[in-house]
């Protein structure tokens, strides 16, 4: 068993636990907002994959790296340091947000920075990351791109095409496949004909598969692969197995689901911290702060006016496509 104290200081672990708790509290607030009728459309929450997201982001450099994500990307935007109130406002379709509330939960597109954006087309964010990797390579700035996607998306033609092209062109691109065992209600066993990491190796890249609930394992594998990519300029693949803590979307009836009782990775990390001597009072304070910050972000976002559909027209005209 990997000992996370080998790769992370106790302060690092505690800070990461605080970030993970905040991400979880933020998602709970998204769920409440949806229940209250404040979120248009469905929302896909990221509960269970926080340690993968934060473990990979630890390795990245905000000045030169770029990240894309799927329909399930609130946690990526938070991990990249995007303002929680702006994300909340975008999710609720308000102005004063990332794209005036017109993108919504599945299309979080901050203006610049580490997180390039999320995409509601399954797998669509992966070739976009290849473009960012190509840009970094052309600039020669040592930057890399990272594409987060699900195991369902891994079966998409555009994703496999990107894996091949990344090897052929020598792109500094990390493919992060978050395997939560489900693509909507289709089990992973029914969507992939062969294990994903060996498949990635067959494309010609280095690949590792880890338990995404094991922070030390995620951190070690991500650190190794990112450092390899920065050194040799070649793509790599990281598969992280996680439990999908909730439904495919918030409020889904998961009658199809037979995978039994799940171990929550945040409870697991908490137990490790207790074992390492962090006091219950300290952990409790972190958890309360996470909850308060999440509520404050949504309270701030709720003050923003609703989106303005006429801005769609403005954008189309500015792009030259509107007479
Ligand atoms: C091209 C395309 N096909 C189908 C859908 C409908 N859809 C949305 S999410 C999803 C499942 C994706 O599964 P996975 O990639 O494993 O991601 P997860 O939801 O598990 O995070 C599907 C089929 C879509 N949005 N885009
Ligand atoms: Mg999945």
Automatic annotation (TrEMBL):
<dbReference type="Pfam" id="PF00676">
    <property type="entry name" value="E1_dh"/>
</dbReference>
<protein>
    <submittedName>
        <fullName>Thiamine pyrophosphate-dependent enzyme</fullName>
    </submittedName>
</protein>
<comment type="function">
    <text>The pyruvate dehydrogenase complex catalyzes the overall conversion of pyruvate to acetyl-CoA and CO(2). It contains multiple copies of three enzymatic components: pyruvate dehydrogenase (E1), dihydrolipoamide acetyltransferase (E2) and lipoamide dehydrogenase (E3).</text>
</comment>
<dbReference type="GO" id="GO:0006086">
    <property type="term" value="P:pyruvate decarboxylation to acetyl-CoA"/>
</dbReference>
<keyword id="KW-0786">Thiamine pyrophosphate</keyword>
<keyword id="KW-0560">Oxidoreductase</keyword>
<dbReference type="InterPro" id="IPR001017">
    <property type="entry name" value="DH_E1"/>
</dbReference>
<dbReference type="InterPro" id="IPR050642">
    <property type="entry name" value="PDH_E1_Alpha_Subunit"/>
</dbReference>
<dbReference type="GO" id="GO:0004739">
    <property type="term" value="F:pyruvate dehydrogenase (acetyl-transferring) activity"/>
</dbReference>
<dbReference type="InterPro" id="IPR029061">
    <property type="entry name" value="THDP-binding"/>
</dbReference>
<feature type="domain" description="Dehydrogenase E1 component">
    <location>
        <begin position="35"/>
        <end position="308"/>
    </location>
</feature>
């Amino acid at each position: 068993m990997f000992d996370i104290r080998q790769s992370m200081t106790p302060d690092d672990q505690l800070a990461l636990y605080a970030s993970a708790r905040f991400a979880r509290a933020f998602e709970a607030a998204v769920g409440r907002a949806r229940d209250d009728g404040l979120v248009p459309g469905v929302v896909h929450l990221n509960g269970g994959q926080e340690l993968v997201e934060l473990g990979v982001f630890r390795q990245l450099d905000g000045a030169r790296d770029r990240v894309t994500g799927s329909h399930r990307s609130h946690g990526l935007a938070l991990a990249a340091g995007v303002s929680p109130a702006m994300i909340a406002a975008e999710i609720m379709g308000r102005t004063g947000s990332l794209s005036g509330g017109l993108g919504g939960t599945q299309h979080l597109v901050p203006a610049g920075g580490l997180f390039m954006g999320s995409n509601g087309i399954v797998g669509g964010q992966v070739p976009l990351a290849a473009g960012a990797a190509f840009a970094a390579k052309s600039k020669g700035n040592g930057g890399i791109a990272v594409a987060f996607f699900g195991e369902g998306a891994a079966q998409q033609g555009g994703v496999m095409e990107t894996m091949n092209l990344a090897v052929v062109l020598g792109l500094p691109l990390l493919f992060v496949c978050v395997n939560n065992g489900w693509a909507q209600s289709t089990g992973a066993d029914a969507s992939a004909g062969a294990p994903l990491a060996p498949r990635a190796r067959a494309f010609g890249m280095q690949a590792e598969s880890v338990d995404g609930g094991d922070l030390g394992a995620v951190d070690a594998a991500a650190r190794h692969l990112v450092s390899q990519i920065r050194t040799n300029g070649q793509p790599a693949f990281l598969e992280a197995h996680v439990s999908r803590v909730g439904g495919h979307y918030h409020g889904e009836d998961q009658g199809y689901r037979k995978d039994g009782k799940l171990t929550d990775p945040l409870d697991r990390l908490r137990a490790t911290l207790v074992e390492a001597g962090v006091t219950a009072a300290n952990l409790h304070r972190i958890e309360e702060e996470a909850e308060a910050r999440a509520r404050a972000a949504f309270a701030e976002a709720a003050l923003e006016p609703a989106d303005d559909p006429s801005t769609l027209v403005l954008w189309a005209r500015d792009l030259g496509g509107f007479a």
